[in-house]
Amino acid sequence: MMKKIVGTILALFLMVGVAFAQPSNWRVPDQATIDWGAITVLENGNPLPADNTIEYAIYLSLYPLTGDPQDYENQPLVGTTSNLTYTLTFTDEGSWVVGVQPIRKDSDGNEVSRSNISWSSDPAAVLDGNTFGWAVWYKPGNVSDLH
What pTM was estimated for this model as a whole? Predict the structure, then answer.
């Protein structure tokens, strides 16, 4: 019986110790990195001409999307890149999804055409149909003048 009591007390001390060992300042991540596969063909299946390049427009929008999600002129553009990866920075609270739009450019760097925006909320656009987004909510400030 004494072993059970000592064991229970020891277990309680260990649980309390583990609880105090956890980080005390949880933080909402303010950045996320996304990536995607390279565009190597045109929509008709022909290879992308060797002297053409693809640039990607990156959009970050509150979810659920409103209006026409393909209307790129009214979507919040956060940047462009020729890389296959992009780091998003969240500065406002909300539920966010990302859109990536390939832009075909000719050998002089002029825009030739754009594909549809692929949104992270669209199962047809994401890897294995696993849609994703970010919920960014900041904690309130700490209590002060506690007495």
Answer: 0.77
How far is Cα 50 from Cα 64, in angstroms, rounded to an integer? 38
Helical segments of 22-142, H only: none
pLDDT tens, 30-68? 889 999 999 999 999 999 999 999 999 999 999 999 889
Output DSSP code: residue 128: G
* All structural domains of the chain: 31-136 (2.60.40)
* Tens of pLDDT, residues 100-140: 999 999 999 999 999 999 999 999 999 999 998 888 888 89
Q: Which residue has the tokens 């990156």?
A: 58
Whole-angstrom Cα distance, residue 77 to residue 37?
20
> What's the sign of the alpha-carbon dihedral 31, 90, 124, 39?
negative
* Interior/surface letters 61-92, b for 16+ CB within 10 angstroms, e for the rest: bebebeeebeebeebeebeeeeeeebebebee
Cis peptide before 64 (omega within 30 of 0): yes
